[in-house]
Amino acid sequence: MVIRIALAGNPNSGKTTIFNKLTGSSQRVGNWPGVTVERKEGKLRGKDNAKIVDLPGIYSLSPYSPEEIISRDFLLNDQPDAVINIVDATNLERNLYLTTQILEIGIPTVIALNMMDVVKKENIQIDTEKLSEALGCKVIEITALKGEGVSELIDAVMSVVGTDADSKLRYSSKLEGYVSKMEEAMRGSVSAEAERWYALKLLERDERIGKALSADLLAKAESIVASMEDDLDNDADGIIAEERYAVIGKIVADSVDKGDRKKIETTSDRIDRIVTSRWLGLPIFAAVMFGIYFIAIETIGVWGTDWLNDYIGETVMPAAADWLGEAGVADWLSGLIVDGIIGGVGAVVGFLPQMLVLFLLLVILEECGYMARVAFVMDRVFRRFGLSGKSFIPVLVGMGCGVPGVMSSRSIEGETERKITAMTVTFIPCSAKLPIIALIAGALFGQSALVAVSMYFIGIACVLMSGIILKKWKSFVGTPSPFIMELPAYHMPVVFNVVKSTLDRGWAFVKKAGTFILLACALVWFLSTFDWGFNMVDAGESMLADIGNSIKWIFVPLGFGDDWEFTVATITGLLAKENVVGTFGVLFGAEEISEAGEEIWNVIGRMLTPIAGYAFLMFNMMCAPCFAAIGAIKRELGSWKDTGKAVLYQCSLSYVLALIFYQFAHVIKGYGVEPWIVLAIAAGAALVYLLTAKDPFKIFGRIRSNA
Amino acid sequence: MKTLKDIKPSETATVVKIYGEGRLRRRIMEMGITKGCEIEVVKVAPLGDPIELTLRGYDLTIRKADAEQIEVE
Question: Among partner residues B31, B43, B48, which is closest to A59 by beta-carbon distance?
Fold first, then answer.
């Protein structure tokens, strides 16, 4: 039998550091089923038969956020053998709020009192024996950063496995009277150990607890709650929260001696006074953001990615092709290996250098405590669009590359805001889309810089508009959690944690998105290289050309549906957006093609009107991003179903915007009225409705409840 | 009625009652804003909202609209 130990604690309590110390390098990282919350577990160091399951950082076991629900379901249903509850000793009262609830579940618990070095430095005396006695569980002093107390913690937790948990925590006699009544009412319906937990949660009117209980019992419980509310003249949840804090206050008063000093100003307070001050807050924010952009997008990050891409494209691929040619391998197989497989792998790992540089910077910001301040500073701007203040970073990074842009939305703790951010970041023109802009601007607009500028504005407008629309789609993105956020004390990042989190995130991209990117790239390569008889042909005679021909009518209302080349280029853009220009080069028979495609400006100038070219550009900027970005979106949304919805949304929005633009420009330019204008007007009205109506997605809810 | 929103930076107030409902009210209380708790308003964010509080020895940020649900004296 493997002993399972759950690790629980508040965010910012040093949980990651302790988890790393307890497990060493034996870690498995994944997601909890059904949600995008990270699940980590590992073998307890030095014990072959014990493993640690890291629960998400939470403040309470209430039923609201996915993190809280995961944690309580795990503690109640999976029945771990023991719990290590990490408590930040510098912030005892709020940390013990979670402790009171964990103790009620009735699992043997050990408290790891962390950050004891800080407490001692501030000359605060904590009587751990008194604390232990009051709570009815072992309390071990540790300083996770220095590894102090970790082996004592391991011994303590192993010694409580199999013992009876007996919480000593008692509330006021009035409340305890109702707890006893409640316990009596449900005796036999739940396990004896968890009775107190169920009783208190029922008294709190917890929405989720009733699911496991009979209607009869719930009715009885409700009458007890009502009489308690009457008696104590407060709402049920208010009574319980106040009682918890009252008992904590008493315990802390008994066991902690803060000395008779006045409140001292810590280094962290002094840093914060400057960093988020009225006048310096925004300039400092701008400087930090510029730093990230400069390092990850302009210099080190992009150098790494360019170097690796060039190395794969100019050294590895030709070398492999030569080698296969010399070995007498058939052309099609050589093509499959070199262009299909090596090219596909390149598409995955090519993003890694930039992504790792970016993740490193973000992890440092998270670890040192500045990330929470980003939300504090930017909240006012972003909240009306259903986004978090932290959404600024993904959008900024998205200007360089959408893949790390999407991945950096991971820093946003609210699931709703995170999903909306991940789905909208790729509206911002990334660097791979710039050649398409240069192509159209050069071919049809005399290289006007306004084309690029307008694309950025449309991109940002799409992000904000989508925020407004998507936050109403509650069945998809969920209900935003209240913005009541801890501002953790600033501290120096721990090198080991930073390196580890950075590599974990990079690896997660390769693992979660890699397979999809590889297969999707191989498929498009296959379609564009063979004809229906599986002969190797030029792209112009390939299966893809036929597919383009048969679906090009879709783009007739947008003005570029008469020639199949534009449809095919849009499809190859899914591999990587810079492929669009290259594809035109091949299809229009250019011997060689420069990045902005000067060689084919004439051809495109003859085939498209400027407004059709602009509509083509709008659609290609905003529609489904490249496969790598779709893979990253899948990682953040968690399921293919939601990823499908996201991509469909992106394609619909870009189609609608390009349609409206083209049809109205057509009339304004004096080219006459096309019948499609009816569609454009209807789409425009639908868009306005989605933006202004209060609950436009309720129809989805209705369909679901009818089904 | 005086609420937390009316408290100026570096002033301290004591919580009297939490209004509002459901998840928001619950979250406010869970983070330690309960009856009788002393709260110092530290500062206002550079753009005028949200505000930063100190209570029970730690720092918390909350939007003004939500601070309006907290009656203080």
Answer: B31
Q: How far is A652 from chain B (nearest CA, A)?
A: 34
∠A596-A602-A606 over CA atoms, to 5°? 125
Closest CA to A340 of A522, A532, A596, A561: A522
Q: Which of A123-134 are b and which e, b meaning 16 or more Cβ less than 10 Å from the residue's Cβ?
A: ebebebeebbeb
Residue B25, CB half-sphere, CA atoms under 13 Å: how many? 18
**How would residue A480 be classed by pLDDT, with cut points 50, 70 and 90?**
confident
Helix H segments across A577-626? 579-587, 601-607, 610-622
Cβ neighbours of B32 in A, within 8 Å: 93-94, 97, 245
Closest CA to A71 of A60, A55, A57: A55
pLDDT at A203: 94
Provide the residue range defining the domain that includes B57.
4-72
Per the CB < 8 A criterion, the answer to whether A37 and A70 are in contact is yes
Cβ-Cβ contacts under 8 Å between A and B: the total is 116
Of 1.10.287.1770, 2.40.10.500, 1.10.3720.10, 4.10.1110.10, which CATH number belongs to A173-257? 1.10.287.1770
Domain boundaries defined on chain A:
3-160, 173-257
CATH class for the region spanning A3-160: alpha beta
- Give residues 23 to 62 of B whose Cβ lies within 8 Å of A: 23-32, 34-35, 37, 43-50, 52, 56-62
CATH code, domain with B67? 2.30.30.90
A198-219 confidence digits (pLDDT tens): 999 999 998 888 887 888 899 9
Number of domains forming the structure of chain B: 1
Say how far apart CA A77 and CA A368 lie, in whole Å: 35
Encode pLDDT of A526-549 as tens digits.
Answer: 888 889 988 888 888 899 999 999
Q: What's the confidence (pLDDT) of residue A262?
A: 56
| Under 8 Å between Cβ of A377 and A492 | no
Interface test with A, best of B47, B49, B52, B62 (most A CBs within 10 A): B47
Report the C-alpha gap between B60 and B54 in whole angstroms: 6
Smallest CA-to-CA distance from A408 within A446, A374, A444 is with A374
Yes or no, beta carbons of B32 and A93 under 8 Å apart:
yes
pLDDT surpassing 90 at residue A250: yes
Interface touch B26/A93, C-beta < 8 Å: no
Q: Do domains A3-160 and A173-257 have the same CATH topology?
A: no
Q: What is the pLDDT of residue A263?
A: 64
In this complex, the residue of B18, B27, B52 whose CB is nearest that of residue A238 is B18
- Closest-CA distance of chain A to residue B26, Å: 7
Question: Using omega within 30 degrees of 0 as the cis cutoff, is the peptide bond preceding B50 cis?
Answer: yes
Q: How confident is the model at residue A348 (pLDDT cuts 50, 70, 90)?
A: confident
Q: Note whether A517 and A347 are within 8 A (CB).
A: yes
* B73 inside 8 A of chain A by CB: no
